[in-house]
Structure formats: C-alpha cells, structure tokens
Design goal:
It is a peripheral membrane protein. The protein is of the alpha/beta class and 120 residues long. The chain has a four-stranded parallel sheet, with helices on both faces.
C-alpha cells in the first residue's frame, strides 16, 4: 500500500479536551459518531480518570480514519509520558490551549521534538 493510499482515508479530526473546547469544535463541525456509536471526541472534566484519557488517546492514534488529534495542553499534561512516547506522523498530534489554560510552548512535546530535530 502506497503512502498516498494509506493516508487518503484519514479525514477526521479527533479531540480530547474540556467541555468548552469540545463544544466549540463540535459546533464547527468536527464531531463524528459512526454507526456503532464510536465517537471522535472525549470530554474531560475533573472527574475523568487518567486511564480513560489514555484509552481515548490510544484509540484515536490507532484509528485509520483520523488525520489530526487535538488535545488541550492541560489534558496532555495529565498523560505526558504517553504523549512523549508518541512518534507517528499520522494522526498529527497538536496541543491546543483551553479557555482557562493558556498555551505554554515549553510544555509542548511536539514543539520540543521539532526544536531537537532542528538542532535548537
């Protein structure tokens, strides 16, 4: 299977984040629920177990229909060791800010990896 064929079916954006982030992205049209009830998003609140977040991350990064995985940076901090082990190009992993949690470039593992590869 060629790379073009392998990545052609990746058409969804998955999201792991707080309620405000998920709501905004669902209103923007990124939400998808397949015929079996499988969602491409996870709403995280203070009661969400870390194991649930890790399971969603594993599921989203293994799915062949997801092109991009957006995760609130404060949620990514909860599973940072798992995030740092992630090395795949697809789905692309992007850490994003939340309403109450500004983006901190020093915590972004993807940005750190890019800087490392560029020799900075």
């Amino acid at each position: 299977m060629s790379n073009a064929t392998q990545y052609r079916d990746r058409s969804l954006i998955a999201t792991i984040g707080d309620e405000d982030t998920i709501t905004g992205l669902l209103l923007a049209g990124t939400g998808h629920i397949d015929g079996r009830g499988k969602k491409n998003f996870l709403v995280v609140d203070s009661k969400t177990p870390v194991s649930t977040i890790e399971s969603a991350f594993a599921e989203f990064t293994e799915r062949s229909d997801i092109a991009i995985l957006l995760i609130n940076q404060h949620v990514a901090e909860m599973i940072r060791p798992t995030i740092e082990k992630y090395q795949q190009a697809f789905p692309a992993l992007l850490e994003i800010p939340a309403k109450d949690h500004p983006y901190d470039p020093s915590k972004d593992s993807v940005l750190k990896a890019v800087k490392k590869h560029l020799g900075e």
